[in-house]
Amino acid sequence: MARSFGRTFQFTIGDTTHQLSLFSEPGLYRAHFGDRQLEVHVQPISDNCILLDIDGHSVTVYLAEEGGRKFICIGGRQFVLEEVRESAGAGVAAQTQAFKTDYALVSPMPGQVVKIQVSEGDVVEKNQTLAIVEAMKMENELKASARARVKKVCAAAGDLVDAGQIIVELEPEE
Amino acid sequence: MARSFGRTFQFTIGDTTHQLSLFSEPGLYRAHFGDRQLEVHVQPISDNCILLDIDGHSVTVYLAEEGGRKFICIGGRQFVLEEVRESAGAGVAAQTQAFKTDYALVSPMPGQVVKIQVSEGDVVEKNQTLAIVEAMKMENELKASARARVKKVCAAAGDLVDAGQIIVELEPEE
Amino acid sequence: MDLRKVLVANRGEIAVRVIRACRELGISTVAVYSEADRESLHVQMADHALCIGPPAPLESYLNIEAIVDAAKKSAAQAIHPGYGFLSENTSFAKRCEEEDLVFIGPTSNALALVGDKVASRVTMSKAGIPIIPGMKSKGTDPALFAAEAKKIGYPVLIKASAGGGGKGMVVINSPRELKEAVEASMRVAGGAFGDESVYLEKYLPAPRHVEFQVLADTHGNAVHLFERECSIQRRHQKVVEETPSVALDDRLRTKMGATAVEAIKAAGYTNAGTVEFLLDDDGRFYFLEVNARLQVEHPITELTTGVDLVRQQIAVARGEKLSFSQKDVRRSGHAIECRIYAEDPAKGFMPSSGRVAFLREPGGPGVRHDCGIYSGCQVPVHYDPILSKVIVWGEDREAARKRMLSALSETVILGIQTSIGFLQDVIAHAEFIAGNTHTDFIDKYMMPWKEEADKELLQVILTAAAVDAQGKAGQPGRSSSSSVRQVTPWQTGGGWRVGGQ
Amino acid sequence: MDLRKVLVANRGEIAVRVIRACRELGISTVAVYSEADRESLHVQMADHALCIGPPAPLESYLNIEAIVDAAKKSAAQAIHPGYGFLSENTSFAKRCEEEDLVFIGPTSNALALVGDKVASRVTMSKAGIPIIPGMKSKGTDPALFAAEAKKIGYPVLIKASAGGGGKGMVVINSPRELKEAVEASMRVAGGAFGDESVYLEKYLPAPRHVEFQVLADTHGNAVHLFERECSIQRRHQKVVEETPSVALDDRLRTKMGATAVEAIKAAGYTNAGTVEFLLDDDGRFYFLEVNARLQVEHPITELTTGVDLVRQQIAVARGEKLSFSQKDVRRSGHAIECRIYAEDPAKGFMPSSGRVAFLREPGGPGVRHDCGIYSGCQVPVHYDPILSKVIVWGEDREAARKRMLSALSETVILGIQTSIGFLQDVIAHAEFIAGNTHTDFIDKYMMPWKEEADKELLQVILTAAAVDAQGKAGQPGRSSSSSVRQVTPWQTGGGWRVGGQ
Fold first, then answer.
1. Shortest CA gap C319–chain A (Å)
2. What is the pTM of this model?
């Protein structure tokens, strides 16, 4: 039996990081998850579709990469994955962090700032609305995820903002 | 007004060759057909779709290249074009010729030879069935387009043949 | 009257819907688009297309001057407004009348009456049709709202007087929230409808939302085309609609249908419209409003009655008489619609925008997909997040429900977040199966929600991702075996060596 | 009887159709595929997929052993045969019965009777149903055929006794052509059905082809679901089908429907089937054959009656009673189907194969697309050239006809030749509009045919090609103007200088 060489991958889905090792042989892949192993026959269909045969089950997977993330859809259900790469690890982690940080209020989507409800130096409480951003005709209230002090207001009503853009910088306030 | 530089194209559709010159300016193309001129705004939509605006008429054109030919579809009607290139001109002409020649019977589609109905040296009449090729469960009789003599039989029953492949070589017979 | 060219003053799936109807009638179409919509599907499908301004709705799809100008430039004889945008805008309808453009909808007078939610509440109340307790005049002064709220008791609901589609609607549970909510509602109403007046009514926490489709010609004939049950909502916007409603028996259906026709006649309303009711579990119903436009959910009525509503709209606009009367209207089977929004149901239905990297549409018997997107298109941030609608017909509710599940499972929209997975869970929910569809359905049964993969599915997802990542560096050869694929059962452990160890 | 897993012994659009029906019923599906079909759509849609052999049909889709083996390996309880291939193969049905696999179709006995065209001619003749003059026994000896042809007079028609779909059918105008034609027909019949016996009957040059859909359960109940008019044919294969037929009035419809039910009962036939008639312009009809399978054109019956035929097939196979009787069957509106073949109508309908570089499916209200292909798929040379079916429903024939034209105009299949343009010309033809649909329609009105572009369209095509070719070398910038696109009228001459001059 030929020895096969594998490659280890790490993907995050939401907040969770998953790891697997993939071994490839002609017409066959083996995926290892710790002590569990999956044997997979892969039939490429198109740029956005592969057909997997796993244990006699046929699974059609639709996939696309967009903005550095992998969108994977099976049975009409979509999952968004980010690959954690050794070199790019820090960057990805930092970006993920930016969305969760307690010390900056960032816009979770592209949109237009409707209203900023705080000023520099204000102390804000957890769940207090700091700003309102409109996207696709919906107003979205952006709330503080913890008690904090406003360090700097980085956007004004009417500004167009990108996803991930900092709107209000915060600093710890005990 | 800036001088614009054009490029001349030749396309064949069926047996007819058409020529035009195309001039491009920012956001606008001008196509010249002899003394007639078309001004066209082009909006690329995707790899297989462009949107033309011609004289206020909006025309969505679907296109793809496959096997060296351009497939162009407008309003559910498809046209197949071959570009005649200076250098490749001879080759294209020769290939086109192969389909029309009186001196070889070629398979017009990929398929399987069911029967060869002639032998070397036979004299065949116009419209005489020389061979039967099956494709997609349909038998297609291939007939002589003129009176001729069989020079060589190049395929046998059971052979898989490609489009354009010579099945029977013929020579003039008066 | 002969109509040969219609301008469609809308975008997305509804513009596509109207363009198709016109094409079938031999009417040529003019699309209008904002600068953000140059590559949009509706632009590709029309016979003519004109850019009417920058992305902001007020400068393009709500810009009456630009649209009237486009109609004149393109020699269009009529304008179909779709839903949203200018569809219920009295000034626009009036302007069309003045410019001798046929507005495919009610007259500006009828629109003014029913389009003013407060005025129509008053009208219906006078006609003896029950309305929800609340203000019978609109306003902008928060004190006015506070007084009325105090009188009828919290919770109350703020609504845009010119509104629709849930825009500007805010529920208020206590006096503390009132001022901010009134302001927010006014802001949204002003932006969306060009009219910032709002009003307040009693908030019924969990009614059903049942509406009747009506059609009225300009010769005094009016019919209803039965009801649509639209109770499944998020952010006061409908998500799932079905017909018939499980909550109506034939007696109640007949009564509500007759009331709907009465209401529409009382208002002097013509063309297609919808009379919305709130219905409680005791069979009491309250007039809510008239939607003076083609509704997003009109296809479920089309699938069960066989009446093409856009075609009827055009016939009425041409001055034709209705070709059928109430007794000719039959319905059969059951239809369900799911709206596919560009949004993330796991994050409070936050809108999502960007590029649709790949689209696969559902198909097959009884499945209709009214779609405004295509593989590779951009979903702009400026407009309603509705991407498409999956609509199914089945012999009965259960057949339709299963067909919807199947259709959603084959719908693929990659590159942005959508509600497809969430909708599958709604349709598969035991309470939905049981027909317990009230307006609080999503809050009560669906929240919080997340796309969850069990361990096996998760492993398949990760494997696919890894194979894809690997593939970018070079795929292994395709299987060349011609025998039945031999796959061993799920293995644990085994003698495989990790490369490098 | 509880069915949990069904093997679909077919490919292409019909396999997809059956898989969808099973999915809606909660039945899991097993696809089988030849080596040429590894990437086919039906393989992608099934829950399980097994390769059953090389591309040649006899070694895969007609390979009874391989299919029965696949059913056992995958623990399928039933087999749906689709149409064509083994769908009317008595040995296969018998083998399934022996192996305790449910064959979703008639019993092998009924199949043997109606599947033998000659035997069923005899049976029907005895039951007093009119048949076309010709042989009442099959054969292989050309002398036999010559004698019968001489007796009834030329032209005559050779048909495969086990056949269907026009395979092996040859019209003979003179004794000279007879021998070659009989041989060709036997060869095709042998290849397609595994049975090379053929027979001969009088050729009616221009009848209408009208068929009745029937459904019979295993409890003695049978109904018909009205007719389908299938007269538009090329190479004896249907191209356009519609229902209702313009040639039937209600009296004739009732009479033919009752005859169809009688015929099916006389044959002891169960499950879905079709009784085909030839109809002349004087209202005389002749029994042609029973198609003992789901027909390609079944969707037009589904759209007008609301009955899901595949679901009914499965219910009957489960041993259920029909849930409705003849008086419950209602039809409404008009439906038309166009078959999209991979073929070149400009070259004698020569099959086309290769890669589908791009697919755009038609959509919208009343449009159904039963499709077996996708963007990027290969169309193999080994099988029937049917790619998909565009099916439309409309309130009446003219509404359906216009909808079909609209749907075909938005269907795009690039990279291979298809019949889409040809079909548009059929549907738009004055004789089609007038309802003059006879089996010689295509020869009489459509031939020769070529996709023709007028001068203006030709210039647009060439411009698009040139822009595309140019684009490969670098596109000019997108239009950055935000104003209404200003386009001058078609210009002739002008001051533009050709580069280099």
1. 35
2. 0.86
